[in-house]
Amino acid sequence: MRSHKKRSSSSSRRLSLSMVLEDEDLLGEILVRVALPTSLVRAALVCRHWLCVASDPGFLLRFHCLHPPRVLGFYMSSPQASTSPSSCRRLVISRRSSPTACAARRLGARRLRIPTIPRWRLFQIA
Amino acid sequence: MAAPESGDGNNGAARMVTLISSDNTRFEVEAAAASLSQTLQLTILDGGGGGGDGIPLPNVDSATLSKVLEYCIKHAPAAANGGAPNATAVDRAELERFDNEFVNIDQSVLYSLIMAAHNLEIEGLQSLVAKKVADMIKGKSPMEIRRTLGFPDPTPEEQAEMNAHMLEYGWAYE
After folding, report:
1. S-S: A93 plus which of A73, A112, B94, B174, CB 3.0-4.6 Å?
2. 3 state SS of A94
């Protein structure tokens, strides 16, 4: 087997890079393997083309099948919640160290509000 | 080309085929290894690539083809056994070790490999290399991903778009 020569010039690197990353199929193959929804959101924000590929319904379905959502945590409300709905609800995250949990915890404090909530309710982040 | 370990259980002496890279380098390889490529498989089944003919691959240069064949030769025995249902844990661990080292390469080679695996339809290789690039992306912010993959600097328009996204998805930029 002959040994390969490394092509290290930035122009050839850039050419290959753009050929790979501008191809929707190849980019999709890469993005579908980032596994975590948080990594996918970060990747989708790289540029408009990546956002387009990462938000395609067919792509998202495949991503969802390959990496099914797991229960991340739940909202817990105390009996007083029925009288003061917004103050006694707490987002409890079961897997505290995962990147998804970190993002959800930050969002959970500010954005993940549920208007009416039973006493216990599982909440799943896709 | 070094003779690979024998992986064909029912064909007798291994049949060889010749592949010709875009820069006219000839590679002689076992048909079983080259057949990992769905693109080449039909041609080889039809008897192509033998003798002095060779199969031209105008989209794959010799450096990339050499690397692709290294993968195919290593994986051909397992593929010939139908995904190696009776492979030992040692065999599987050895293939995994090979795969990990195989993708530990310069980014330009990685990109050429993705293109070649896509063109030649070698599913395992395509998956392996795409996973490697995905691992390079995982856990990084959009700007870090751009830097890692050698994107050019964002245009003012792209920068303005990113700034707007940053307000909406601040956590993703940390």
Report:
1. A73
2. coil
Contact A34 B137 (CB under 8 A): yes
Q: Assess: ipTM above 0.85.
A: no
The single residue listed with the structure tokens 């691992």 is B135
CB within 8 Å: B111 and A31: no
Please write the tens of the pLDDT for every residue from B50-79. Answer: 767 889 999 899 999 999 999 999 998 887
Ordered by where they begin, the domains of chain B are 16-138 (3.30.710.10), 139-174 (no CATH)
Who among B64, B131, B140 is closest to A33 (CB)?
B131
Do B64 and A106 count as a contact with CB atoms less than 8 A apart? no
CB contact residues (below 8 A), chain A span 28-67, against chain B: 29-36, 38-39, 41-43, 45-48
Say yes or no to pLDDT of A120 above 50. Answer: no
CA dist B29 to A108, B139, B153, Å?
57, 40, 43
- Search chain A and give the residue with CA nearest B116: A20
Element (H, E) at B26: strand B26-30
Domain that holds residue A29: 10-66
Residues A38 and A86 in one domain: no
d(CA B127, CA B116): 12
Alpha helices (H) along chain B:
31-34, 38-45, 62-80, 89-102, 107-120, 123-137, 142-148, 156-168
| Cβ atoms of residues B29 and B65 within 8 Å | no
